[in-house]
Amino acid sequence: METLEHIAFDRRLDVLDMVYRARTGHIGGSMSCMDILCALYYRVMDTEKIKRGEADRDRFLLSKGHCAEALYAVLADRGFFPRERLLSYARFDTALAEHPTRKIPGVEAATGALGHGLSLAVGMAAAARRDGSPAHIYVLMGDGEQDEGSVWEAAMAAGKYGLENLTAIVDRNRLQISGNTEQVMPLSPLAARYRDFGWEAVECSGHNSEELVRALRLRSPQKPVAVIANTVKGYGSELMENKAEWHHLVPDEEQYACIRAQLEQRRGAVSRG
Ligand SMILES: [Mg+2]
Prior knowledge:
The chain is an alpha/beta fold. It has ten helices and seven strands. The strands form two sheets. The chain has a five-stranded parallel beta sheet, sandwiched between helices. The chain has a two-stranded antiparallel sheet with strand order 4-5. A hairpin with a 2-residue loop joins strand 4 and strand 5. Helix 1 (about 5-20) crosses helix 4 and helix 1 runs antiparallel to helix 10. It starts with a helix and ends with a helix. Bound molecules: magnesium ion. Magnesium ion binds near residues 142 and 175.
């Protein structure tokens, strides 16, 4: 069986191909959040139940919707739609747009206007609890997204109502479109801030599957859980890692070859379990 890290590198290679072919995308943030998505979709959530659309299925929201290509690569590999459809990413005649919508199998809501996903998740979690459903709601936000005031309105509500069926994950890569998060709008100590809003909060490596799975399975009575996943923007390619400009850059032919080689090398370095 392949390790989760190995699978995540395969999906990063999918993303690289999608962005290179489409000449658009958000490659840096897609690389940083890939281990989080893989932990959720290959280990933590029951994806068959989600495919069947069962009322008490777990739900996932990609609040940082601009990294849609990362989600599409995972959904296709998990059988939500044929992998060939990834070739259509960002074309005019496709549902696989640069932000996800409900036209895509497995997508619960249109997202990517930043700062809205946590509010949606709070509503879904409150509804699930009202209905006596065992569904758990997961939402993935960017760290730059924490600058949106609406995130903190939703965080207050989740704490007040003790939504223990809600997990918010922050892709803590410390970069946003305009630079370092601590210079643009300081967030640290982010876990402590969520605790102050009535949440359980944990920090973990966002590139260690074991740590991620443990954090994503954490439950706390009467409290929503925040997982601050420490990640590297552009993870897997030294050409891109920790460089803010790779938020939205598209590799040229030479860069594509370099990134592909670096990703393949790193994939080879992660152990096969
Ligand atoms: Mg970021």
